[in-house]
């Protein structure tokens, strides 16, 4: 190498610095490239993506190959820089030190920082071409790479680390939620919300969205047939449970579409029973993800939620689960006009049976998920007594006024929008501590 002309030595040094930058940049690109995008492009037949994925399947071999090449180039560049410096300035004092410092700065800028920054910003533009180069290099240098990895993995083994302990690129539900929320303009806002809602289905059970037992509308076979016919003609639901005396003695479901074209008043109970569908029961606490699969498997759209003793707690439909994903099937902002009534002063009058999830969507606060499911249940747990009409208190910074109580339950209450703490103090509204579960839910909501 000493016999080469000076200009060839300087040219070789420049080439080595370029190779050093290529090794450094390609390492960063391959380690940061989006593997999900690579898989997608590989399925479409992109050869470079397939090669990159094959290299990334054994990152220890890939890293060993890159570092082998990078270190060899850097050491060779250091030797060549020393030879060039001696030929230019002789072997005087400080020449080698200045050469080492100068080479370090040049390698740091042009061989490390600049190429790695570019590769981090454009990983695919660097990773794909690098895959075409590293694939034949790995075959050529495999014995050396294998030996290097054997020694490196031996050191890691002594430290208690194993290759199988790596997490890979698996994502938890919360990590996937973060990915969806940070997709920005790539996914429309409403699609983001649906994807996040799908991830939340596993945390929600049928108890959270079912129609409570007290609000189930059904057909009592012990009533007069003309009354039953009138009820079905004016029913607001297309599917109704049919029972004797109480919902606990359910005999089936009637789908009103099966009655189209029939004169109900000309029918009798025997003909009506022939149209009934077999009842379908859902265990309480079933996650919505599981129940969605069960509805599909059993080809059902409606079911009765039962507890461990077989007592009916409520009613769940396929539409209820779908609304948890896509939102209410209505243009009305109010989830249920039957339970929530907006007032001119900005408040809402709600029945005691209002579902807390519907109320939370409207008012922007989240009640505890492991407690009561209705407004009446929340108030009774909150007050630890049946409050008198006119009682006012705060729930999640929302003033609540009891309007009517009857039969040991809150029948209606008025809820105002959230007020700031400073405004509350100015108005002299006392702050009552929330139940612990509600506080935890509010804290979790704030962190999210």
Notes on the protein architecture:
The chain is an alpha+beta fold and 448 residues long. It folds into three domains: 6-165, no CATH class; 204-326, Roll (CBS-domain); 340-447, 2-Layer Sandwich (Uridine Diphospho-n-acetylenolpyruvylglucosamine Reductase, domain 3), CATH 3.30.465. It is built from 18 helices and twelve strands. The chain has helices spanning 6-32, 35-43, 47-56, 59-89, 95-121, 123-140, 142-158, 173-181, 189-200, 206-209, 225-233, 269-273, 288-298, 318-326, 356-363, 375-383, 421-427, 436-447; strands spanning 211-212, 219-220, 239-244, 246-255, 281-283, 302-306, 312-317, 340-342, 348-351, 392-395, 398-406, 409-415. It has a five-stranded antiparallel sheet, covered by helices on one side. A four-stranded mixed sheet has the order 1-7-6-5. Helix 11 links the parallel strand 2 (219-220) and strand 3 (239-244). Helix 1 runs parallel beside helix 5 (95-121) and helix 1 (6-32) packs across helix 6 (123-140). The chain is elongated.
Total number of helices: 18
Strand order of the largest sheet: 8-9-12-11-10
Major sheet: size, sense and barrel closure?
Answer: 5 strands, antiparallel
Helix coverage percent of residues?
Answer: 40-55%
Count up the domains.
3
Low-confidence stretches: 331-336, 429-448
Strand runs, count: 12
The coarse overall form would be elongated
**Approximate strand percentage:** 5-15%
Arithmetic mean of pLDDT: 81
Structural class: alpha+beta
How far apart are the first and last residues' alpha carbons, in Å? 63 Å
